[in-house]
Amino acid sequence: MKTLGFLLCCAALTSGDLYITNPRGSNNRLNWFTRDVRNNKRLFDSQNNNRGGYNVGDPMYYYEGSTLSIEWANQHSCADQNANCELILQYMCDDKIRDGATSFSIVDNQDLNPGFGMHEEWNHYLYCRTRQRNKGLFLADQNLRFNDARFTRQNNGGTKSGYECPEERDYYPYWYHSPWKDIVVMTNNVERCDYYQKESNNVKSRWGCVVDRNKLNRFYRWPLFIIPDNKEDCENFEIFRQPVSANWTEFPAHDIPPPKCIKAPWSRDNHNGNGIGGNFNTYDWVIPEGIAHEKCVLRMRYNISTNDYDSWNTDASSNTDSDTDGSKIDLSKTFKLPNKETAEARGYVFKNNPDVQMFPGLDVKLTLAINTAQFGRTFQDRSHVFEIRQRPTELKDVTIHNLNVRGKRGNNQQVYPAVEYDYVPNTLEINTNDYVHVQWTGSDRNPHNNAGNGRRGTDRNNMVMLKNKVYPEGTPGLAYGGLDVLGQYGANYPMHLDNVTRLIGASTETRAVLQKMALLAPPRYGGHMFLLDNAKAYYDLGPLQFAKEGVFHYMCTRNNAFTNRSQKGRIIVRDASKK
């Protein structure tokens, strides 16, 4: 089986990492006051730093056909000379999906227990732990405890994380049926795009050996109960010399278009994934029509591999033959040594912590911090549960953009590797006939000593109009149709309402919308609102239309703290009639 390329050279020394910032990535968090994740195996294996992620908030919803800006940070770079990289975005909708109410991991056969968070269902994990692992995969010098699909080079102990299947998590495209539907593959090597799209479970069915679930539930804890991975052995399956009824079965494709496949966006390693211009990378997902569901979740995986050997074309034939030898990979050509024997004699062997003689004739060796379980590695993050809704009749044929808020309460040191507040997208370009769905959520259970304004531990946001920029830089933004959009976002005082209404229209309806955006009306409780404490952490303004061309700057009055953050955004509106 072919696999995605895998890992960065120094990953054995890092914690690191992939974090979705919009929609809010969970990193296995639920709703805790602690900075560290309580249980990093609650729903999935992220491989991430335990301080990442955002507490669950009230569920967000997005309309079919609307554009959702997915924003993330990948720690170890992409589209860069330091590593091979693939980023895979997927989604899944199912009635059983839930965030849960406890930090404990879901136990066996508890699909219907609402207390436990759950993404994949029990049947997915049940077949994983009874299905024969893919023995064609490269393991280097890793020794796996058992031979089912729970055990991979990266997960050689078969650790359980929710109902996730470790083999399915670590490899893409996976050769067995997966409930996840592909959105996009972002790769260093676009020559692989044809392969990814043809092999996607969106368009290609999968085959597997199906055994009665009651029998599986009875015998799945037996290490020798391993379901075959091919038709012949499936139809002749037996356990303890007793025949077992099994059927070689086709699992249909998801019957949706293949994923998009594009060049991965460039990012710098070790700076929380900063892309071009120091900004986080984003992918604008146009949510498909016809998939409305109350319970959906987004998954992003980040597969990275070293350039020390040809990971794409390396398979089980290069695995070690013993507990003491390294893998059979020949590194002599990579490092321009005469032959494999010379390379091995000087320590150029792909194994854990090799001692390498760099200088010929000098009997001094240096130990390399290599962990073969992590050279070729997959990181992951997933969103909290969200809803996809059908469009209202009045919005049937219009373009809808989602405008959200990322981040959580605290300064950059307190929230890292999560981020501070900002709007997503920070700059939104629309036409006068488009709609913007303004919505955000947050938590009331951030650590109480995290810095911020208003009631401790709480996330709150609003939007108020700013005076246009006051420190012009450069020339008018010709790329934006001649609109003057360069320079600063504006002052740190909001524009007075009378001036705002002159700018965007003075109707009673406009005034009411501006008040809602600023005051988050109606408030959650009675009392003062000057720090927004009595508002909810969740706010939904609904779809809003900007009917006048211009550049509109806005800010959050609570979080725009001049000492350590700037929560400002802008909307660039073009006159659609001028196209």
UniProtKB/TrEMBL annotation:
Name of the protein in question: Protein DD3-3-like
Lineage: Eukaryota, Metazoa, Spiralia, Lophotrochozoa, Brachiopoda
InterPro entries xrefs: Protein_DD3-3_O-glyco
UniProt keywords, alphabetically: Signal
Species this chain originates from: Lingula anatina
Chain segments carrying region Disordered: 441-460
Sequence ranges of Polar residues compositional bias: 441-452
Signal sequence segment: 1-16
Keyword Disulfide bond: no
